[in-house]
């Protein structure tokens, strides 16, 4: 059901915070009754000539996007992909990513997103766990995919040439025999080995027969996505998101932003493989038939160039992006006043960042909160003068919350006391892929509802605004990416010079947090260089997980049962000047 603003039902007694919603935001959304794929079909029918995607100046209308998705869906069917099969995407942001995402969903397959910078080891675990049979991979990721394939169910690796999505003039420029062209080409392309099961995306799609219109869409209760997340342990688990979950979160976002009629231009500088970027730039954006301006990676100059060419109205991002864009706009004189709304996530939004952004745009920048398991947005600050920088905001429409004793989630704490945040709503995931014990640890039943344990300690103000106090889980958030200390520690302990290690996050300026390794040197070792540690990590950890600082300690603080006390380590690291790798 949907509650008209100003109207109330009995559920509002459980949600006093709805009185702080921005004017016009409903207390509830209509429960989703159609899969995500229907939105693209509707956008192509109702707005055929509207630009759907703009990738570095190469534009695709909604009608053309619909045709491309139909042809790609036919190509995947030709490879033997059937409803329920998992299709892995190992791609940066590009038009082909959008096409592949919706094509896989259209035939009822399950999309599994992967970071294209992952190492073979990281990909191997996730591909094996998901049981993906087809991987659609960027050329520069193919080497890692092929190295990971042996112990998986992958039958086909479909290779994407990123440069083929560029405008014709830019694509032709890559072939020029000049240094600048060679450097640009090297960032986009790579040689692909001739291996069994490897096929080019362009060739596959060119010869495919488009999927017939009468082929059934998936059901709203079918699985749409497996999004891998480390949760509280650092062991990657596939969060099962149904079409219903994804559709609900996009509908909640539309209700929150009130983007319904006027055409919007959404800047997609967040990676599609991240739950935040996927929802706001791939599903929410198509639901409102927005024009999505796609960036293969975040680059201030590229974003400001696009702003001069196709001005944004809505920008989702992380705080460092907004800081750099605001500074860049001031320095270059770029006009950002077309941006009416911006939403920040993945890390805390500093009040000064919000002020700087709002000064250069005249629009609003608010913080949202969520996790992969909530598709991902669960709370947000209102897009109104009532916004409160520094808080997580209010639960979204159709979302309920409780604050409980972390040791006993059946017991609510007194109002104003700290406790673990639990949320319930249609965006809450179905569980972890083939991990019933992990699922039961985070999904609990209470009062006739299913509640998601977030693992975050919060306190709720009198008017319902939620403030983050601490993280129960010890994930490090650096540059918007999650780094799981146990994974980094396990790898570094295998380094001959290191006896023991604790990895923590400390304030890192525009990164949010930076990864710091506190190490105990092996017997007889007097020194280890940070460069050596980073070199050791090169082929096993994503770049953002590499330690940025190294501190040598005589021993690590431990609890009575021998567990390393990471919070104590963090305090010690912050209190001292980092060592250059010498034993004290």
Automatic annotation (TrEMBL):
Residues covered by the AMP-binding enzyme C-terminal domain: 488-563
Composition skew (Basic and acidic residues), residue ranges: 1-15
Record bears the keyword rRNA processing: no
PROSITE patterns listed in its UniProt record: AMP_BINDING
Superkingdom classification of source: Bacteria
Keyword set, alphabetical order: Ligase
Entry-linked SUPFAM superfamilies: Acetyl-CoA synthetase-like
Ranges for domain AMP-dependent synthetase/ligase: 40-433
Gene3D superfamilies named in the record: 3.30.300.30, N-terminal domain of ligase-like (3.40.50.12780)
InterPro entries registered for this protein in UniProt: AMP-bd_C, AMP-bd_C_sf, AMP-binding_CS, AMP-dep_synth/lig_dom, ANL_N_sf, ATP-dep_AMP-bd_enzyme
Keyword GTP-binding: no
EC code: 6.2.1.3
Disordered: region residues: 1-25
Root EC class: ligase
GO molecular function annotations of the record: long-chain fatty acid-CoA ligase activity
Protein name as catalogued: Long-chain fatty acid--CoA ligase
Organism, as annotated: Cellulomonas carbonis T26
